[in-house]
């Protein structure tokens, strides 16, 4: 429990669970995940690519959620979140781990061992698509072109079934099921953007996102921890001023990372709201984790009330708001695509409504929105920390399911409990374990609240009037 | 230490100039309704009423002739009518955002502008409602829009987003009016208690609903306020989302895109803030409200506009990027030719005919607000006055671009066309300004334009020393909360 020195500097007592055991549990899980991942990679590297992307991206969104919460706190200069800000800062500081975890993904898809981006990688090469010279004789009008593209889209939508019937779902030769005409048009659509999706350009962009995140995380973490020691008030306006440009960079990198890593799994598909949805989910995931940490700190009196029920309640309200926001943007995307019923767009949802994924979709609707909405709407529910803890755990699981829903249906495997799903889990454990090990060590190294923030005393006395 | 003592070193200040008393606030706001209107008010009011007269005349002509007098044609079935509808509805959003969302986020600076903006919401929605009501051609049958049981068994099409609009806008208007009125009750009571004539006392007394300022009254009031804020918050999002569905559920290139709902909401808040700012700068000058709405508030509003401008810019960029990324030739045609103009020429080598409207939109909505990165621009009244007007021009063009560039050149070149507004289009749009400004000026003159009670609650003296009750449990925390800047 708390020691005298802890009262002075808000550091984690050396004998607390967070300081001693938590990171070891996390590291052990990562080790288990590593073993599972190696097995998964050996069994089917192609399919494992999806597993790894899922695990990696689920953890990345947590880091991005944390970065958003840090930036928005500085931007709005509010005081209620000062004491809980350190939690998010520590998670944000896990950005270098994310960069490391990205390397296998980039290497795997560059080397062609992970096949998930092959469809557009091979569009200009001798892949399972026809050769690029094929479409040259077709100089038809735009109308003809697009009508046939739509045809290709319809055929595209039927692929998973066809692939499943043939019993080789993990293969990427889906274009085999198309007529030559459809193939050619699908090919031409992809060829038009092959420059954007081309491997080296894609890797370069990916690295740029990772560098940007590491830089923002590094600067903000350093400024904040330096303020712990120097108590320099002027760091606060500095962080606020930097937050505007940082959030601009953050918004663009998050969006394009979502486009490049996840949306491009279905290379002919597109949705302008895609980045916003990933952003909304990220915030929920991180707020759930943040509430869990804050509740732990509060319950074990590790911050002596510096992070108390008032702050946790505000965090949970923000989380509730983001549950509604996530639903709003997810619904917008689905409803508009469903209503218009354009085949090349509908194919994406088609994949998520067959082969068992309809249950994942339904789980998201009820588990990520309906249930949490009614189980967290009341102040009484949010103020009951035991209840909130359970709900946050649930929402964290739902956030992972959300990312699973984004990534894995693209692997053309049915969503059933077979080896592939175990490997999905293994990749999640590997990435999550590695990230949390680093983060949890961070909690032991730095004060649990930003003790140098000039608004700290206001935050310590934060009381909700409404 | 008071909870809200500003930390000057990091740029915090009191919201109102130091030394402002509760009496000053009451005086400044209530005086407007009690004294003769200043000359400036009349200078604004007379042209406004003239424009209102123009609107009446134009509507009379429109009803007599039918909506053929508008520029709408085939294929531009929608023109200025829906553009103006969306623009006006958007204007209203700032009020709801300020009164509800900023309230929930405890942004105390909102108290100087919320009443004002809420009133603008109500008036803007009324102006907006004119357009769909008139564009049915036979407004006397507009009750058909509502699902009223009738002997012909005729029902509106519930699957149509236009139908959802009817519900969304009516709900929005209802809630906005009630919320506005609930907030006004204590201030009406203040006016009643200051009244010197029986008539004023009767009228304001009626409006104050028997408010006595009792502890219990305040408790109910604050609870009601919170509930209304909670109800209004999803309305800020839902109304303009439903408006965006009018376009996005179709398959028209340039309309059917998934980012439309949040993009429309952000644009609405953006333009709403800009008009609130324009109007506030005028009223502030006419009635001398410089202390209550000071440069600090304007600075914050400008930051807010910069933020929403960036969100709108993000949406423009996404639309443009995805139009290219989709590989869909129709999307590309709309964005590269019809909108950007030069990026894809037609077979004769011409730019898209409405390229200038797209670039007017980009310049006003994305480029102009970038000046607000600089504090000098955020705190210069002439600059922000011009900028907010440009933003509203840009936001009008945004709707015009979306509607007209998509409709005039869609899938089939043989059915392409163009759109030219008529004098009636222009007259009706200007006329709605007459309606808006007239209502607004009457509001300013007779209703407390700043929320007296709420603004008083931001004064330093209004804060009981909260921490005293809880100080003990944090005493040890205090020791390390160095420096305690405001002790």
Explain what you see.
Chain A is mostly helical and 466 residues long. Helix content of chain A is 74%, strand content 0%. Chain A has 20 helices and no strands. In chain A, helix 4 packs antiparallel against helix 12, helix 8 (142-166) packs across helix 9 (180-192) and helix 12 packs across helix 13. The relative contact order of chain A is 0.19. Chain B has 487 residues and is mainly α. Chain B has 16 helices and no strands. Chain B has one domain.
Counted up, domains of chain B total 1
Overall geometric form of chain A = globular
Number of helices of chain B: 16
Please state the structural category of chain B.
mainly alpha
Spatial gap, N to C terminus of chain B: 4 Å
Greatest interface by residues involved: A-B, 63 and 62 residues
Question: Termini separation of chain A (Å)?
Answer: 33 Å
Total helices of chain A: the number is 20
Order of helices and strands of chain B: HHHHHHHHHHHHHHHH
State mean pLDDT of chain B (0 to 100 scale): 89
Report the major sheet of chain B. none
Structural class of chain A: mainly alpha
For the largest beta-sheet of chain A, the strand count, sense and barrel status come to: none
Q: Briefly, what is this?
A:
The complex is a heterodimer of chains A (466) and B (487). Chain A is 74% helix and 0% strand.
What layout of secondary structure does this protein have?
The complex is a heterodimer of chains A (466) and B (487).
Chain A: H1 4-9, H2 17-20, H3 22-43, H4 45-76, H5 82-92, H6 95-110, H7 118-121, H8 142-166, H9 180-192, H10 194-197, H11 199-230, H12 235-262, H13 274-299, H14 309-340, H15 343-351, H16 357-376, H17 379-383, H18 385-407, H19 419-445, H20 456-460
Helix pairs in contact in A: 3-4, 3-19, 4-5, 4-6, 4-12, 4-13, 4-18, 4-19, 5-11, 6-11, 8-9, 8-15, 11-12, 12-13, 13-14, 13-18, 14-16, 16-18
Chain B: H1 22-34, H2 39-65, H3 80-104, H4 114-135, H5 161-194, H6 198-207, H7 215-248, H8 260-287, H9 295-326, H10 329-339, H11 355-367, H12 375-378, H13 381-408, H14 423-446, H15 452-456, H16 466-480
């Amino acid at each position: 429990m708390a020691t005298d020195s802890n009262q002075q500097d808000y550091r984690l007592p050396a004998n607390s669970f967070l300081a001693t055991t938590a990171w070891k549990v996390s590291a052990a899980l990562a080790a288990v995940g590593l073993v599972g991942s190696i097995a998964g990679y050996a069994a089917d590297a192609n399919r494992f690519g999806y597993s790894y992307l899922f695990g990696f991206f689920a953890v990345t969104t947590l880091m991005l959620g944390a970065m958003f919460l840090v930036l928005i706190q500085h931007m709005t200069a509010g005081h209620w979140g000062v004491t809980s800000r350190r939690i998010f800062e520590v998670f944000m500081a896990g950005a270098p781990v994310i960069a490391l975890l990205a390397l296998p993904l980039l290497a795997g898809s560059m080397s062609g061992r992970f096949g998930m981006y092959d469809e557009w990688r091979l569009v200009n090469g001798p892949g399972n698509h026809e050769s690029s010279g094929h479409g040259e004789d077709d100089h038809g009008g735009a109308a003809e072109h697009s009508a046939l593209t739509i045809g290709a889209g319809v055929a595209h939508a039927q692929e998973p079934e066809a692939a499943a019937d043939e019993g080789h779902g993990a293969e990427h030769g889906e274009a085999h099921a198309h007529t030559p005409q459809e193939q050619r048009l699908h090919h031409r659509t992809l060829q038009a953007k092959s420059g954007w999706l081309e491997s080296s350009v894609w890797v370069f962009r990916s690295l740029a996102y990772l560098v940007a995140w590491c830089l923002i995380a590094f600067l903000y973490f350093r400024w904040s921890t330096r303020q712990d020691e120097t108590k320099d008030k002027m760091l606060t306006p500095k962080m606020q001023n930097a937050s505007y440009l940082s959030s601009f960079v953050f918004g663009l990198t998050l969006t394009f990372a979502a486009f490049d890593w996840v949306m491009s799994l279905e290379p002919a598909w597109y949705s302008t709201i895609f980045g916003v949805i990933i952003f909304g989910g990220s915030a929920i995931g991180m707020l759930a984790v943040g509430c869990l940490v804050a509740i732990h700190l509060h319950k074990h009196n590790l911050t002596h009330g510096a992070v108390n029920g008032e702050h946790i309640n505000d965090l949970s309200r923000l989380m509730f708001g983001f549950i509604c926001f996530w639903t709003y943007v997810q619904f917008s995307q689905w409803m508009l695509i469903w209503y218009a019923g354009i085949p090349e767009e509908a194919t994406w949802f088609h994949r998520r409504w067959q082969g068992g994924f309809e249950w994942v979709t339904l789980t998201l609707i009820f588990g990520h929105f309906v249930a949490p909405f009614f189980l967290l709407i009341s102040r009484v529910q949010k103020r009951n920390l035991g209840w909130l803890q359970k709900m946050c755990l649930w929402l964290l699981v739902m956030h992972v399911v959300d990312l699973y829903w984004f990534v894995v249906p693209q692997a053309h495997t049915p969503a059933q409990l077979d080896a592939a799903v175990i490997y999905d889990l293994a990749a999640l454990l590997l990435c999550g374990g590695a990230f949390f090990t680093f983060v949890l060590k961070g909690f032991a190294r730095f004060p649990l609240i930003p003790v140098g923030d000039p608004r700290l005393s206001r935050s310590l006395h934060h009381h909700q009037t409404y | 230490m008071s909870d809200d003592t500003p930390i000057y070193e990091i740029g915090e200040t009191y919201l109102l100039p130091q030394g402002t008393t509760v009496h000053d606030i009451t005086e400044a706001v209530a005086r407007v309704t009690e004294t003769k209107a200043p000359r400036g008010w009349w200078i604004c009011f007379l042209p406004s009423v003239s424009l209102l007269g123009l609107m009446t005349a134009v509507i009379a002509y429109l009803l007599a002739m039918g909506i053929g007098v508008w520029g709408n044609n085939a294929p531009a079935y929608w023109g200025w009518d829906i553009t103006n509808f969306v623009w006006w509805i958007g204007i209203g959003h700032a009020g709801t955002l300020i009164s509800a969302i900023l309230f929930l986020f405890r942004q105390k600076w909102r108290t100087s502008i919320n009443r004002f903006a809420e009133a603008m919401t109500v008036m803007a929605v009324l102006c907006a409602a004119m357009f769909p009501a008139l564009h049915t051609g036979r407004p006397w049958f507009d009750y058909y829009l509502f699902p009223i049981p009738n002997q012909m068994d005729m029902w509106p099409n519930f699957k149509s987003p236009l139908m959802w609009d009817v519900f969304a806008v009516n709900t929005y208007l209802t809630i906005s009016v009630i919320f506005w009125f609930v907030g006004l009750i204590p201030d009406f009571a203040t006016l009643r208690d200051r009244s010197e004539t029986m008539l004023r006392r009767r009228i304001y007394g009626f409006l104050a609903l028997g408010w006595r300022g009792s502890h219990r009254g305040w408790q109910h009031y604050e609870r009601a306020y919170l509930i209304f804020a909670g109800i209004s918050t999803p309305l800020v999002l839902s109304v303009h989302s439903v408006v965006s569905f009018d376009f996005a559920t179709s398959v028209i290139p340039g309309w059917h895109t998934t980012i439309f709902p949040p993009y429309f909401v952000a644009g609405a808040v953006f333009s709403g803030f800009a008009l609130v700012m324009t109007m506030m700068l005028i009223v502030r000058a006419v009635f001398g409200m410089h202390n209550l709405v000071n440069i600090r508030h304007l600075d914050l509003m400008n930051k807010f506009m910069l933020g929403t401008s960036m969100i709108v810019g993000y949406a423009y960029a996404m639309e443009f990027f995805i139009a290219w990324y989709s590989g869909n030739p129709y999307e590309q045609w709309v964005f590269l030719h019809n909108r950007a103009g030069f990026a894809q020429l037609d077979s004769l080598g011409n730019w898209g005919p409405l390229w200038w409207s797209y670039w007017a939109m980009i310049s006003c909505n994305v480029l102009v607000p970038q000046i607000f990165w600089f504090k000098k621009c955020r705190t210069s009244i002439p600059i922000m006055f011009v900028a907010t007007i440009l933003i509203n021009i840009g936001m009008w063009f945004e709707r015009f671009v979306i509607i007209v560039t998509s409709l005039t050149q869609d899938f089939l070149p043989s059915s392409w066309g163009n759109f030219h507004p008529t004098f009636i289009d222009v007259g009706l749009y200007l006329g709605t300004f007459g309606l808006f400004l007239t209502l607004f000026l009457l509001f300013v003159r007779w209703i407390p334009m700043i929320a007296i009670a709420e603004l008083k609650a931001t004064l330093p003296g209004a804060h009981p020393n909260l921490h005293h009750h809880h100080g003990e449990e944090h005493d040890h925390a205090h020791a390390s909360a160095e420096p305690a800047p405001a002790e």
